[in-house]
Amino acid sequence: MRADATSSPNPPPAPEEASQEDPSPVSSSSSPAPVAAAAPPEVRKVATAMEAVERDAAAIAESYASLFASLRIALSNVTSTSAENMECLGEVVGRLQESALEASSKGNKYIHSCLRLNEEMRGLESLSIQLKIMRKNIDSLDLAVDRLLHLP
Question: What is the pLDDT of residues 42-53, one digit of tens each?
Fold first, then answer.
């Protein structure tokens, strides 16, 4: 760093020299800047460089402001979309729950109907056994009647 400072033929001007020029663009228009005309070339270079830095800083600030505005809008859209999605999800879950309750209710009714049918089938089974016994008895009686009617 010391080599850079000593190798430069013209050292940079002191801050007091740079502040001699009026950097504000809002100076009175009636008096031209005589200091700038009489200033050495190094001061003019520094002033020009500072103006370029100020322009770049203003452009960067404007870019950041635009970026933050875009991010704010995007975040607002995402937030509102997320809220809408959550409402939709809530509705879907509610309807799914209603459907599940209805399906389980119908399933329970079906199971109870099957159990009742099973009980009735058990009752029919005993009735079926009784009918088989009656049929055997009727067949025996029918055979006996046929024998009596067809005596040789």
Answer: 888 888 999 999
CA-wise closest residue to 44 among 64, 60, 20: 20
C-alpha angle 22/25/28, rounded to 5°? Answer: 80
Q: Residue 45: exposed, middle, or buried by beta-carbon count in 10 A (0-12, 13-18, 19+)?
A: middle
Provide φ and ψ at 33, rounded to 5°: -85, 95
| Nearest alpha carbon to residue 127 among 82, 38, 42, 119 | 119
Q: Whole-model pTM? A: 0.38
Task: Give the pair of three-digit tokens for residue 14.
Answer: 């002191």
Q: How many residues does the chain have?
A: 152
Here the tokens at position 41 are 């070339």
The amino acid occupying position 34 is P
Expressed in percent and rounded to 5, the helix, strand and coil fractions of the chain are 80, 0, 20
What ranges in the chain are assigned the alpha helix state H?
Answer: 2-7, 15-18, 34-38, 41-149
Find tokens 């809408």 and name the residue. Answer: 84
